[in-house]
Amino acid sequence: MISLGSYYEIESQLLLSFDLEFINLKELEDLNNTLQQIIKMMSKFSNSLKI
Length: 51
Prior knowledge:
This protein is an all-alpha fold. It is built from two helices and no strands. It has helices at about 1-20, 25-50. The protein is elongated, with a radius of gyration of 13 Å.
């Protein structure tokens, strides 16, 4: 699934941003939680299209 690959790419960018101190721990956690919610929604949507 393409969206899963994009998820891992964004996740790695978030971790890199944290490591380079562009974002703090709270921002990392908030963004990661949002990202996980989005991937769950995309997964449910994808499953709803399968008959």
